[in-house]
Amino acid sequence: MSVIKRGNQWCLRRRVPVEFQQVESRNEIWISLKTDSRRLADQKASAVWAEQVAAWTARLSGNDPDAVKHYEAVQDLAAA
Questions:
Q1: Can you give the residue ranges of the DUF6538 domain (predicted)?
Q2: Residues 61-74: pLDDT tens digits?
């Protein structure tokens, strides 16, 4: 898992897996973990990534209403 510092905040940077490229136009995503602590960023990164993968999976299966909930969950996890 690649956790990178951008300014004063830590971000999760990952390549978009091939199986999700039909529902995600970017090759690489950056998600702010909304913390200046490396330790907290490392703790949040796995949960945020798992929620992002769940959102893509929902979009692939056609469950778009859940995709909005997953996106909000990613944001909530990053802000916690």
A1: 4-58
A2: 876 666 667 677 77
